[in-house]
Predict the structure of Type IV pilus assembly protein PilW.
Amino acid sequence: MKMSRQQGVSLVEILVALVTGLILTAGVIQIYAANKQTYRVAEASARIQENARFAMELLARDIRMAGYQGCAGQARTLVNTLNDTSSFLYNFGNAIYGFEATSASAWTPTKDSSITSPLGGRDIVAIRGMFDEGVAVTGQPSNSGDCGNSSSFTADLKVSDASVFSNGDIVIAGNCSRASIFQITNVNAGMNVVHNTGGSVTPGNATKDLGACYAGNGELAKITTRTFYIRTNPAGFPALYRKDGSNAAEELVEGIENMQILFGQDSDGDGVTDQFVRANDVTDWSRVASVRISLLLQSTEDNITTAPQTYTFNGATVTPADRRLRRVFITTIGLRNRLP
């Protein structure tokens, strides 16, 4: 009798095929997961690098310009006609100033009240000077350009372009020998910049007398105290903020977790840094020749690393509770107006 041949596949063969397929699928999933995690790490690292470059560039650009007041810099005679020349916002005799974070809620010197909502334990730096181009002063007084007139020191300033100025702006008029700081109380249609006493502007002018005439060889530009510090942004992440004068602070770069600052003091007056100290150890701010900035950046996404990433920052080794990626960046910036 002839035996029939087996048709199809056996149960054992089906099970073997299923197991083999599951193993291959698991391998593919594992490779995909590993590649995805590698991509997340690479993306977070790239974002941190990008944010660090941007933050350092912003800080370095403005710190280098600390004390810039036009043609002759801080060597010329400076007259400050504002009502409050010793306060943090209007003390333009100090090109740079800092606040050392001495605890989670305190700074030395005491933080100025204009600096709102800073994160504790982070240092603060303020730079004073001109950060925009000036315009030519074409007339004074009575738009004539006659500096021989006895009233020229108190006259309004006619400028080549008044559109860049507004009532309440703090400005500096200067040439290569003198400079005067005042607050604009009116800008009229004839491109005249008015600087009366009184009025509704704050802090206002103590006098109309600028102490000099700037017609023909002077310029007029905005001057401000620009402050950099760390605070929490609306998304809940630490970020670098910049605040100009009494204006509202604006967010610059997200993910800046900490900022520590050392100030390079020139002890012997040769324009070269001799030692780096904290803000509370600076004995003479006019002797600060450089600034050393240390930034700690974090990824905005958690669970980037497989375990909490231990890092060393500001002399301390820290193991955080999260699994964010972190990097430390350090740079030293010379103040151009203090260099030999």
Observations:
- Residues 135-222 form one domain.
- Residues 11-64 form the longest helix (54 residues).
- The two ends are 113 Å apart (CA to CA).
